[in-house]
Design a protein that fits this description.
By secondary structure, the chain is an alpha/beta fold. It contains six helices and 14 strands. GO terms for molecular function: hydrolase activity. Keywords: Hydrolase.
């Protein structure tokens, strides 16, 4: 599994021959990538805020996955033609990948001018094996937490049952967790590798990611924190095996 961060909350995940793009928003200072260069099979949207769906119209040939409300919105407003609406706890089989939608604690207003809601915001757990109660030591699993605060579901469900090997958490504060809460989240999900995201895009979420590194160390957890540069790829398969 390869993980590429394009800044903010935008990630590209490769599982076998399947390419997934999460929260396409390329108007951020961390990336030089032209979205036209990418050709994902699937686009996953955590919620309907503009800084997570703004470039959805660049990927109309992909299959979109989100809550039914967000799928309806991007179909109407962005010309998306192919999508699956799902909800918390569901798992969607995306060719070589299994995508489980999990809760995120945030808001999810849509830019309709009428205060419409996109349903509950989400995170995604992406794995190369189907989640079951039987632990699979050979699976590779990535948890994209979405825009969220710290929540006990990370400790009680996502960590022990979905068993992510790697986790990306927002550290920007103001709209999401800041560095110390994000560090607790890393400790709770007990992943081997952690990545900060959703920071330095706008003035309210400017952060020094080294504060996050120090906060993870302060929890006593032995997760390796990787502060990626924009457009940098982390090969999870290579690190695990």
């Amino acid at each position: 599994m390869e993980l590429t961060w394009y800044g903010h909350s935008t990630w590209h995940v490769t599982v076998g021959d399947t390419e997934l793009l999460i929260d396409p928003f390329f108007d951020n200072p961390k990336t030089d990538t032209d979205p036209e260069e990418l050709d994902p099979d699937y686009v996953l949207l955590t919620h309907g805020h503009a800084d997570h769906i703004a470039d959805s119209d660049r990927f109309r040939d992909a299959h979109f996955v989100a809550t039914p409300e967000v799928i309806g919105y991007v179909t109407d407003e962005y010309g998306v033609e192919d999508g699956t609406g799902m909800n918390m706890g569901g798992t969607f089989e995306a060719d070589d990948a299994y995508v489980t939608m999990v809760r995120a604690d945030h808001t999810n207003g849509l830019d309709t001018g009428y205060g419409a809601s996109g349903g509950m915001p989400a995170g995604y757990v992406i794995s190369d094996t189907k989640p079951t109660q039987v632990s699979d030591e050979e699976s590779e699993t990535f948890y994209h937490a979405g825009d969220t605060s710290l929540m006990t579901e990370m400790r009680d469900v996502i960590g022990p049952f979905l068993e992510p090997d790697a986790v990306a958490v927002p550290i920007g504060d103001h709209f999401t967790m800041g560095p110390w809460q994000a560090a607790v989240a890393v400790d709770w999900v007990d992943a081997d590798y952690a990545f900060p995201m959703h920071y330095d895009t706008f003035p309210p979420i400017e952060q020094d990611p080294e504060d996050f590194v120090r906060e993870v160390e302060a929890t006593g957890n032995d997760a390796e924190v990787h502060v990626l540069e924009g457009d940098e790829t982390f090969d999870l398969s290579e690190e695990l095996w």
